[in-house]
Every structure is written in structure tokens, then in C-alpha cells.
Q: What sequence folds into this?
């Protein structure tokens, strides 16, 4: 089980090159949009940023979940997960355009609706005292720095420890340390993400608040990250060394988790709707009044049917979860639906027209391409399996059936 | 031999290890028998495949139970709240479907789990207080340290002498006729 046996195959380099090319070209094209209509640009940019942020920190959450539960499913995808977390420096860079140029386009409201940046000090549309202290430019910057520091710290801890484990196989103490760190780490990740979701997305409509909002993002990130991992392991299994590692029972486990995350996301999303619908308070229902009628209502139905019902019923089947052709298609479809859901979560605050602009296609390609290229680069830096994990042999053992 | 056929359940052979059991099961299947069963004190890896067990109906029954529970749960609420006992609650529509969803969900889970448990029991023909193999004295070892293969007389190919010979060929320790009662 030497390290060189589990190097990433040639195809990863090809993916890296293509992804970076597509991402780079799309980014150049999108700059044209940034010059011509910065408002449209930053609306699409925020949505695309939130999608790739989900792939990154969602993977961080899954890494920690794997260390806590130590299932075989996680050993198979641990290196891809860690590679995804190491894209975090790109996320810091990708956040800068929002922080430096985009804020005034995003958080200044639209039309008569004022955002928190230009809310009147008194009278109608004024922020509450707490909001006046919380939603400030310096607060926005400080908190963003804290979120990234928390995520970066967790990313470094788990990647460095994992590298140490490669050198010291069978080290049980190291695994205990993983477990001890993973518990608090998950709490930190969820807290940081919850606040980040409030700062970056929920504050688009400063007068509306929902306590489960952060969890919607966390559950969505788990879906996108797990989906991406399913696609990655199936693609890796087209060539050695992963071809002889990946088994149907692994796909089955990953599929089961994906089903669980889809259900969790639907549960959170419906809880928010049910509570707001039951309360029926004017300041709370605004969220759904803009999103459930007209064109946005159509998008809402699309999200309900294709983000929940269709994947849910497909993933119920054992045959689908064990099928290495169908499962990755559902997974990639779910990543796309994550984008549609983020579109539905953020865009109605700016326009009542539920029509995507050309930037909504180019910017996800740009950020997604760069993200994928960076990920492929990271994947080549380490063996594809955590060679020092005490459970590795058991996780990749072939049973007779 | 044929006159015995109605009085016996089958022929049972005893084995000492799970490997011997797997080997015997494979041979019996290869010989063309279909109505036979294996007994072991613990789950033996690969035994279901060797026995040629097909996918069972439990998943389908569970899905049906879940759908019946969910659809029934929803329409029972709809029937109560909108048709038989309409109540104006805060001016909301009588068919307030968001409020029905939690109960619908719970009943779907209830229906699915009840269907799974009772479907499994029914497909296994349980509860079954007695079974002909219990007539074989040594069969008590099936719960502790011995493995058994029983070829049933219902099998179209069944012939007492032929089955006994086959079991002998795969090195069964004790070969016994299983009386029906």
C-alpha cells in the first residue's frame, strides 16, 4: 500500500486544465458585464459565490462529520473532501469583490425598498436599534474576517493532522485527537455559516428575519458537497487506482447520506414556511409574498419538485443508490438545483422578474470553473486515500458479493 | 420411495463449518434443486447469494405502506377539516395544507414502518410455532454450533435416496429423513 500507488490519475490534470480555461474565459467575459451593469453582475456573483462557498465549507463540515462518526463512506471520500476544503483561500479572494465593490450594489435595496446601507435613520423603513449596531460596514468586514479565520483554522487543522496520519499509520491517539477537534469544529462551522448567511444573504432584506435561515444554508451545503463527492469518486473510478477501490456498497452509503441531506434540507425549508404561514405576521410573510407569486412562484415550484420530490423518490430506491451511472447524474443535478435555490433565495429581493440574465450562466461557470480547477490541483497533492487511517483496510476490503 | 413422499418433509444434512455449508448449498443448487433451505447459528457471509435468494418484496411493501399512510393521512385531515367539520381558524382557508404536512409526514413514516415489519413477517410466514425440521433431534444444534441443509420433498426433483446421496457427496455428517409429523 505504498503512497505512489494511490496518486491521482492523469485525467485529474486534464480536468484541472479544462476547468481553469473555462473558468478563466468566463471570468473575462463576465468582467464585461461588471462594467456594463454592475448591479446585475453582483447579484449573479453573490449567488455563484454562495454556491462554491457551499462546496468548500460544506466539505469542511463533512470532513468533521466523518471524523466524528468514522464511517467507511468517509474514508473513501476523505481526500477529495480535504482537497475541497483547501480551496478556501480562493474563497477569500472571491469574497473581496463583494466586500470592496459589490456591497453598495447588493445591500442598498432596490427602488423604494432601502437596504441596510442606506436605510433612513428614523421613520418608515428605519432599522431597529440592534440592527443599527449590527448591520454596519465595519461590522460586516470584521465578521467576514472572523468567519474566514474560523474556517481557515479548521481547514489547516484537519489537513495537517491528516498529513501527519499518513506518516504515522495506526496512530490511535491521532484519531482520538481528530474526534476531539471535530465535535467543537462542527459547532464552530455551523455558527460561522449561520452568521455568514445572515450577513451575506438574509441582510438583503433587512426587515425580515428567520432563525432557521443559517441552517437552510448548512443543509444545502451538505447536499452540494456530498453530491460533488459522489460525482468525483465515480469519475475517479474510471481509472486506476480508484477503479479497484470503489464498490457498490460505498456508493450505497454515499447515496443514503445524500438522501438524508435532501430530506434535512426539505425539513428545514418547510419548517420555515410552516412557522411563518402559521404566524401570518405582515413583517414575516414578506419573504414568501415576493417568492411564491408570479414568476418566482414558478421557480418555487421548480425548486420543490426538482430539488426535493424527484431526487427524494429516486434516491429511495436501493438500485438507484448502487448504480454508478444514475447516482452521479442525480448528484450533479442536485448541484444545479442548489444554484436554482440560491437564485430563488437571493434574487427576488432585487427584481420581480424571474428571468435569469446572461451573467447568471457565465458567472457560475467562471467561479465554478476556477473552483474545480483549484480542487483538481489540490487533489493531486496527496494520495487519494488516507493511507494512515487505521480503518482503511476494512473500508476498501472487497466482500465476496 | 414414492409412497413415502407424502409423509416426509425432506432430507436434512448436518455440517460442522460455515465453509462446508456454503459448499454444500452451492452443490445442491448446481444439482438443480430449488426447494431447499440452509440453517446456521449466525449470519453466514455469502449464504443468501449461494441460496440464490431473489430480491424480496419488502421494499415495495414499505413504499406502498408509506404512500398509503401519507395519502390517507392527508385526506383524512382534509375530510375532517374541510368537509365534515369545517372550522374557521384565523380566517385561513379550510384546506390549510401547510398545517396538514407534519401529520401527513408522520403517518407516511408510520405506514412505511408498520408495512415493513408486518410485510416481513408475512413473507417469512411468521409467526410459525412449529416447523418439521424440529422433529430432527440434532437440529437443536442449529442454534449453537452446527449448520444444516434441508432439501424439501416439495422439490420437483425430490427423491429420498438421490438427495441422501448428494448430501453424502458434500460430506454431511448426519443425514436424516425429516418426518412431516
A:
Amino acid at each position: 500500500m505504498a503512497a505512489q500507488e494511490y496518486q491521482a490519475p492523469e485525467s485529474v490534470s486534464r480536468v484541472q486544465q479544462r476547468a481553469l480555461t473555462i473558468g478563466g474565459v468566463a471570468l473575462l467575459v463576465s468582467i464585461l458585464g461588471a462594467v456594463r451593469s454592475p448591479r446585475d453582475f453582483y447579484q449573479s456573483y453573490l449567488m455563484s459565490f454562495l454556491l462554491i462557498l457551499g462546496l468548500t465549507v460544506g466539505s469542511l463540515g463533512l470532513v468533521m462529520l466523518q471524523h466524528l462518526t468514522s464511517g467507511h463512506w468517509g474514508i473513501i471520500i476523505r481526500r477529495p473532501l480535504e482537497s475541497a476544503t483547501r480551496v478556501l483561500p480562493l474563497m477569500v479572494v472571491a469574497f473581496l469583490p463583494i466586500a470592496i465593490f459589490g456591497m453598495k450594489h447588493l445591500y442598498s435595496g432596490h427602488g423604494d425598498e432601502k437596504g441596510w446601507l442606506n436605510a433612513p435613520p428614523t421613520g418608515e423603513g428605519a432599522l431597529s436599534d440592534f440592527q443599527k449596531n449590527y448591520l454596519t460596514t465595519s461590522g460586516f468586514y470584521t465578521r467576514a474576517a472572523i468567519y474566514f479565520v474560523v474556517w481557515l483554522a479548521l481547514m489547516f487543522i484537519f489537513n495537517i493532522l491528516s498529513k501527519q496520519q499518513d506518516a504515522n499509520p495506526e496512530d490511535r491517539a491521532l484519531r482520538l485527537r481528530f474526534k476531539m477537534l471535530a465535535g467543537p469544529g462542527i459547532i464552530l462551522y455551523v455558527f460561522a455559516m449561520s452568521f455568514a448567511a445572515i450577513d451575506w444573504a438574509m441582510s438583503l432584506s433587512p426587515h425580515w428575519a428567520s432563525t432557521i435561515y443559517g441552517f437552510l444554508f448548512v443543509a444545502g451545503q451538505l447536499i452540494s458537497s456530498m453530491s460533488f463527492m459522489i460525482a468525483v469518486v465515480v469519475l475517479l473510478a474510471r481509472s486506476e487506482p480508484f477503479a479497484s477501490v470503489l464498490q457498490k456498497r460505498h456508493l450505497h452509503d454515499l447515496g443514503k447520506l445524500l438522501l438524508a441531506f435532501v430530506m434535512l434540507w426539505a425539513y428545514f425549508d418547510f419548517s420555515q414556511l410552516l412557522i411563518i404561514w402559521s404566524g401570518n405576521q405582515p413583517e414575516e410573510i414578506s419573504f414568501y409574498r415576493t417568492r411564491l407569486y408570479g414568476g418566482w412562484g414558478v421557480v418555487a415550484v421548480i425548486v420543490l419538485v426538482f430539488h426535493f420530490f424527484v431526487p427524494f423518490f429516486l434516491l429511495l430506491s436501493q438500485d438507484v443508490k448502487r448504480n454508478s451511472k444514475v447516482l452521479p447524474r442525480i448528484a450533479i443535478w442536485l448541484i444545479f438545483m442548489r444554484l436554482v435555490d440560491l437564485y430563488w433565495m437571493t434574487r427576488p429581493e432585487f427584481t420581480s422578474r424571474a428571468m435569469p440574465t446572461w451573467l447568471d450562466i457565465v458567472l457560475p461557470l467562471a467561479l465554478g470553473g476556477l473552483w474545480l480547477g483549484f480542487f483538481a490541483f489540490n487533489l493531486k497533492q496527496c494520495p487519494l486515500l488516507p493511507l494512515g487511517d487505521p480503518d482503511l483496510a476494512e473500508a476498501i476490503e472487497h466482500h465476496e458479493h | 420411495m414414492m409412497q413415502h413422499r407424502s409423509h416426509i418433509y425432506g432430507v436434512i444434512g448436518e455440517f460442522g463449518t460455515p465453509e462446508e455449508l456454503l459448499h454444500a448449498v452451492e452443490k445442491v443448487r448446481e444439482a438443480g434443486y430449488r426447494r431447499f433451505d440452509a440453517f446456521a447459528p449466525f449470519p453466514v457471509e455469502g449464504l443468501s447469494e449461494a441460496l440464490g435468494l431473489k430480491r424480496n418484496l419488502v421494499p415495495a411493501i414499505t413504499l406502498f405502506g408509506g404512500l398509503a399512510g401519507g395519502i390517507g393521512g392527508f385526506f383524512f385531515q382534509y375530510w375532517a377539516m374541510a368537509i365534515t367539520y369545517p372550522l374557521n381558524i384565523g380566517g385561513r382557508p379550510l384546506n390549510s395544507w401547510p398545517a396538514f404536512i407534519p401529520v401527513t409526514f408522520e403517518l407516511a413514516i408510520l405506514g412505511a414502518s408498520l408495512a415493513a415489519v408486518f410485510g416481513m413477517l408475512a413473507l417469512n410466514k411468521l409467526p410459525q410455532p412449529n416447523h418439521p425440521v424440529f422433529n430432527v433431534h440434532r437440529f437443536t444444534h442449529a442454534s449453537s454450533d452446527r449448520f444444516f441443509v434441508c432439501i424439501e420433498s416439495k422439490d420437483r426433483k425430490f427423491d429420498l435416496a438421490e438427495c441422501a446421496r448428494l448430501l453424502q457427496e458434500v460430506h454431511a455428517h448426519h443425514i436424516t429423513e425429516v418426518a412431516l409429523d
